[in-house]
Known about the structure:
Blueprint (H helix, E strand, L loop, with lengths): L1 H7 L3 H10 L21 E7 L4 H13 L8 E6 L6 H8 L2 E4 L5 H12 L7 E6 L5 H11 L4 E5 L6 E3 L14 H10 L7 E3 L6 E4 H4 L4 H12 L8 H4 L11 H12 L29 E2 L2
Parallel strand pairs: 1-2, 1-4, 2-3
Antiparallel strand pairs: 4-8, 5-8, 5-9, 6-7
Helix pairs in contact: 3-4, 5-9, 7-11, 9-11
This protein binds 2-acetamido-2-deoxy-beta-D-glucopyranose (3 copies).
Protein name: Glycosyltransferase family 2 protein
Keywords: Signal
Amino acid sequence: MLVLSLLALGPGVGFLSQNLLRPPPTPGPTARLDTAYMPQAAMDIVISTYAEALPTLSSLIHTLRTHPSTPPSARVYIYTKSPTSNLTALRLSTNATVTRLPNIGREGETYLTHILTHWDDLARHVLFLQASVHNPREAWPRLARYFTSQTGMLSLGPTGTTCPCGHCGDRWGWTDSGVIPATWAAVYGNTTTCGTVGLTYKGQFIASAKRIRGVGRGVYEALRMGLVDMGGEMHGPRYVRGREDRADAPYFGFAVERVWGLVLQCAGGEAGMRCPSLLAGWRRGGESGDCGCFDG
Ligand SMILES: *[C@@H]1O[C@H](CO)[C@@H](O)[C@H](O)[C@H]1NC(C)=O
Ligand SMILES: *[C@@H]1O[C@H](CO)[C@@H](O)[C@H](O)[C@H]1NC(C)=O
Ligand SMILES: *[C@@H]1O[C@H](CO)[C@@H](O)[C@H](O)[C@H]1NC(C)=O
């Protein structure tokens, strides 16, 4: 595991000293945006939940509703994958649009379903969260400090993990079997070389609709199909290789969790590499461009 993480950082010393000297960030490939899309709403908040207790959810909604980055008009969508949760009670305690989904594909499938069903109705920015937010004491300040009206993509999870395109893996035991290069090709075409790729974690990030739509529906449809089609190649022995794989917890779900930055064209170059860790929160001399990617 340790060997893997060191390999994943490439020439480790060079990487570290570079980061300490803070050179100007290398831009990744230019992002393709759907500049023609005119959103009608300012912000959508998409929450994926399984069976979290109502007080947990209403407290999360309260945090969001009172957060400085959330406009009063923000629309809240809650998707529950629990077959037994009481949708009426959920609506009453949150005032959100509540939808039950089959318990398939974890939070990745929830986000992909939301994107695909609201494609022509996405707000200017869409905030994606799981009901149990990872490291909330650090995630909320990061949203407050780094989210601006120009934000294209901003991860609210752990950042700074990168890997070389064809040999991706991380210190949590995940190794890629072709998803990263295939996603790069789907996102950027074959005009740019797939180099170092930044990974996202924990399914918490905010993205602009122009950026979400910039890569076309096909990318999201393919990812969703990979999660839900139990007869497909992402559930076949060549991809799964004996690892645990269930409809409600597909092995491919780990790849989808990591690939959001790439899909949202914010994983190449040094995007996010100057972002302070969630615990450090703010780096002296930092600027809002240190985390995530801007649209313009
Ligand atoms: C669901 O919640 C509503 C509102 O709290 C309540 O009236 C109803 O009895 C609940 N239904 C079940 C099956 O518990
Ligand atoms: C839901 O909306 C109604 C009507 O605007 C309001 O009275 C109620 O307090 C809201 N409930 C919550 C939990 O926000
Ligand atoms: C890139 O893809 C196009 C269309 O699939 C193909 O015609 C072209 O030869 C490819 N270019 C390279 C360098 O692979």
